[in-house]
Amino acid sequence: MKVAVASGKGGTGKTIISTALALAWGRTALLDCDVEAPNAHLLIRPEITGREIVTRLVPRVEEELCTHCGLCAEFCRYHALAVLPKRWMVFDELCHSCGGCQIVCPTDAIVESSRPLGELVTGHRDELLFVQGILNNGETQPVPVIREVLGRSPEDRDVVIDSPPGASCSMLTVAAAADIVLLAAEPTPFGFHDLKMAVRAIRELGRPMAVVINRSDWGDGSVRRFCDDEHLPVLLEIPHLREVAEGYTRALPLTQSAPHLTPDLIRLRAKLQALITEAAA
Ligand code: SF4
Ligand code: SF4
């Protein structure tokens, strides 16, 4: 089972929930795909065993072969190329590494060059496997790093994925790779608004969804009513607990700061499995 823990916005407790599930379920893998701000390691505290550079291919031109015809720039829908009468420029940050410019070049003047994009960190905590993606500062394309992390998803155990927040293509990349999306929601006006956007986006993918309401004793009940109206199963409600807030400031996972919630977290696994089975039927 692959469970993506997502949220409409940051700060709803997504990482607290994903790390708690991974720890409560025992022999699991936790993939931290929140590559622009990865912080699951702070709660998991894994022993790090590997680090790899994530790269992507960007075009470079062999000037002596280039006729400055401009076909490559015309082709590039991302405007990552500029062909001037005597110069050829590539804006690496805009390039999506599609390789199209190389194909359309009539003189084979374009070659591909590797550019560092981020880092892939692997490790473990007891039986829990840990994989984390980190996007380099200044880079604007998290999806290739996310795909590298997802590519390390093991087949022999449950996988919990800490998704990027929001209804972005990063989050949808993770949601598309999961069997179910568990949304961490908080009953504040911003939390409610962004939850609705995330639900709408995930529905387009056709993935089953469920919700955990964090700080469930806050707000006016509108998140709960929305879930009921939209037939979104609410699998767990976690009230605002002083010990959880204090534990987070000391980088303690929920399983340590509020161990009385662990049986609920364990039961949540069977509920998710049932929803996946129901959606596949
Ligand atoms: S398509 Fe090839 S030859 Fe034409 S401008 Fe681009 S690199 Fe130069
Ligand atoms: S590889 Fe694709 S996105 Fe990148 S510059 Fe070439 S055409 Fe544009």
Set out the fold topology:
Layout: E1 2-6, H1 14-24, E2 28-32, H2 40-44, E3 47-61, H3 71-75, E4 81-83, E5 88-90, H4 100-104, E6 110-125, E7 128-135, H5 143-150, E8 158-162, H6 169-177, E9 180-185, H7 189-205, E10 209-214, H8 222-229, E11 234-238, H9 242-249, H10 254-257, H11 262-280
Parallel strand pairs: 1-8, 1-9, 2-7, 2-8, 9-10, 10-11
Antiparallel strand pairs: 3-6, 4-5, 6-7
Relevant terms:
35% helix, two-stranded antiparallel sheet, 11 strands, binds iron/sulfur cluster, nine-stranded mixed β-sheet, 281 residues, Alpha-Beta Plaits, 2 domains, elongated, alpha/beta, 11 helices, Rossmann fold
How would you portray this structure in words?
The chain is an alpha/beta fold and 281 residues long. It folds into two domains: 2-54 and 117-280, P-loop containing nucleotide triphosphate hydrolases (Rossmann fold, 3-Layer(aba) Sandwich), CATH 3.40.50.300; 63-108, Alpha-Beta Plaits (2-Layer Sandwich), CATH 3.30.70. The protein is built from eleven helices and eleven strands. The strands form two sheets. Strands 3-6-7-2-8-1-9-10-11 form a nine-stranded mixed β-sheet, sandwiched between helices. A two-stranded antiparallel ribbon has the order 4-5. Helix 7 (189-205) links the parallel strand 9 (180-185) and strand 10. Helix 5 (143-150) packs parallel to helix 6 (169-177). The relative contact order is 0.20. The model has no long low-confidence stretch (mean pLDDT 93). Bound molecules: iron/sulfur cluster (SF4) (2 copies).
